[in-house]
Amino acid sequence: MEPMFSPPLHRQRHQFVIDFVKRNKTKKVVDLGCSECSLLQKLKFHREIELLVGVDIRGAIVKKKMHGLAPVSTDYLQPSYDQLRVELYQGSVTQKDARLRGFDLVTSIELIEHLTLADVERFSEVVFGYMCPGAVIVSTPNSEFNPLLPGLSGFRHSDHKFEWTRAEFKSWALKVCLEYGYEVEFTGVGQAPPGQQERVGFCSQIGVFQRLGGSESCSMLLGDDAEDVFSYTLLYSVNYPSLHDNNILRRVLVSEVLYWAEKLKSRWMEERTGERQRQAEDGEECFGASERDMEMGEKQTACASEVKTPVEQWDRGVSGQQEGEDQQVFWRNGLGRQESCRSCRCVSVPLAVLWSCCPKVNALSGSLSNLRHFLMDDPKVRLSQDGSAVLLNVQEQDAEEEEDHDVVEDSGYAEVSRCSHSAEPEEDWEANF
């Protein structure tokens, strides 16, 4: 038998909620009667949401599906600036719990028809009176549509206590608005066949309630002397990795810095090797170590404000007399100061270069001083004495290709600009249609 609705009716209801969240940039959402957490699993991808909560009276069902709300590997490998916390509770929608007060949106999707009429009154008091959300979306079956549903006799699900007509739903909704200070708009999903929409309405009728007075009105109510009740049992909670967490930010930033520093080092090594090969082919004369040291010192002192060699190398070509001493090799940075490098061979990549030519490093750190601060105490990063550059060891295979020098060598690297920048499970009727 061909399905009557496309997409299926339950998907249309979920999409209605998702569209509301996207339009209103909703940050705190609680789904009452979350059951198997299918709506929550869709909402977690909409990162305007910062707190996502589900409540259902049947904790066993929630526990079976709750791990589907856990962060996946990509959330840890590529964390975003968005914050998301997920909480799942076992509890009844007719009971109060202070942890659910003041949300932006409460959803009740095909839930109230599972309550007795007495419980519906308590539901109204808890949701609209105590929880005091900015908006509430309530969907429930429209009994006027039932004659159009093939093979249906009686209610759509064996656990339904009632199924309202449009007039009955409207009467309840307007009473709620009058008692608790809301306004409501009526709509729905699941359209009737052509020519019958006006007569029977939507298959699932929906009321969208908005609090009068907005957030200020809600804040006044939340500031009253109402008792803080905690009747729900927390089953699951998780914080998604976010760059708002300094530990995560540091980890991602260090990873980016090391990646780009290695990339710049490799590029310089390749260019330097190519340059030497060209010199050998052309028979060009190479500078002696001491001559080159003097020339580099003069060049960098004169051009301190315009460093043309963002990548530099040090060798520890010590004499036999020096081996018994500290064996530090001093080099001159762009400001003419002396620095030291204790490794046999290392390459320096200035932080200014990384911050200027690597967009993600720039965005994550915000400023050069912040970048230095984040890297300063990280064990994975080795900085120069003045903290202005990242020091990288030259690999063994690279060292074999290099000639022994006792001084700083000019990389000939180009300017920075060269860097690349709880309801029941779905109704029995709907399972077939």
Detail the topology: elements first, then pairings.
Blueprint: H1 9-24, E1 28-32, H2 38-43, E2 51-56, H3 59-65, H4 73-77, E3 85-90, E4 105-109, H5 117-131, E5 135-141, H6 166-180, E6 182-189, H7 197-200, E7 204-211, H8 214-222, E8 233-239, H9 246-282, H10 289-302, E9 312-315, H11 320-323, E10 329-332, E11 338-341, E12 345-350, H12 351-357, H13 359-365, H14 368-376, E13 389-393, H15 396-401, E14 409-410, H16 428-432
Parallel strand pairs: 1-2, 1-4, 2-3, 4-5
Antiparallel strand pairs: 3-8, 5-7, 6-7, 9-12, 9-14, 10-11, 12-13
Helix pairs in contact: 9-13, 12-13, 13-14
Write down the oligomeric state: single chain
Number of helices: 16
Q: Share of helix among residues?
A: 25-40%
Count of DSSP E strands? 14
H/E order of the elements? HEHEHHEEHEHEHEHEHHEHEEEHHHEHEH
What class would the helix/strand composition place it in?
Answer: alpha/beta
- Poorly predicted sequence stretches spanning 5 or more consecutive residues: 285-309, 314-343, 396-427
What gyration radius follows from the Cα positions, in whole Å?
Answer: 33 Å
Q: Give the rounded overall mean pLDDT.
A: 79
Largest sheet: 8 strands, mixed
| Terminal Cα span | 8 Å
Identify the strand order in the major beta sheet.
Answer: 6-7-5-4-1-2-3-8
What fraction of residues sit in β-strands? 15-25%
